[in-house]
Amino acid sequence: MDAASLIESVRNYQPWNEQEERDRDIILFHLERTPDIFSRENSTAHMTASSWIVDHSLTKVLMVYHNIYKSWSWTGGHADGNTDLLSVALREAREETGITHVRVLSPEVYSLEVLTVDGHEKRGKYVSSHLHLNLTYLLEADDHDMLTRKEDENSAVAWFPLEEAVQASCEPWFRARIYSKLNEKLSRYRENMRRN
Fold it and tell me: Which of 31, 120, 171, 185 is the most buried (most CB within 10 A)?
């Protein structure tokens, strides 16, 4: 997906709540006006992609224990010049968990959010506080796949029942605003699947 198609996708995205409505405006502002928004060279804000990885029954979520944030979290990473954020989400899901059998449940943006990142050390270098302009995608993985961690980023990988996935996070804002929302959306997705 090129940048113009991605902008159109974000513009057409129907926000779930006020958080998404306001964050969509910020993401669109940067996508339309900031030339290096897909690069970490922009030290103020840059595009990232995450995924909410569920099993076939839509009752479990695959999480990683993130070394920097010291918390169980979704998978995801930086665009690093790639405007196809779905492919970024897929790449990060595979790299961070070791899963091989993964499929996209919808190519559309599942969720979006502006995430604050506190200053931290990475590979021996200080990274200043900045924003991740994040698009999230809904993926399905085989819960029988062997899991492996990406040692430079996470120290564990595990499946959690939906509510336990939210509670496993040590980050209150993520629990309340992001992971709970992703599970609410999953309930609606499951209801739509039953109807069709």
Answer: 31
Beta-strand pair 130-141/45-54: parallel
Contact 76, 128 (CB under 8 A): no
Rounded to 10 deg, the angle between the 18-33 and 3-12 helix axes is 160
Quick one: average pLDDT of 64-82? 93
State the first-to-last Cα distance of the chain, in angstroms, to the nearest integer.
Answer: 28
Helix (DSSP H) and strand (DSSP E) numbers for the chain: 6, 10
Sign of CA dihedral 117, 172, 76, 87: negative
The span from the CA of 51 to the CA of 47, in Å, is 14
| Choice among 30-34, 68-72, 110-114 with the minimum mean pLDDT | 68-72
Structure tokens given for 49: 């992609």
Domains of the chain, earliest start first:
3-195 (3.90.79.10)
d(CA 56, CA 184): 17
Q: What is the dihedral of CA 142, 100, 5, 135, to 10 degrees?
A: 60
- Euclidean distance between CA atoms 94 and 141, whole angstroms: 10
Residue 174's pLDDT is 94
Q: Name the β-bridge partners of 103.
A: 140
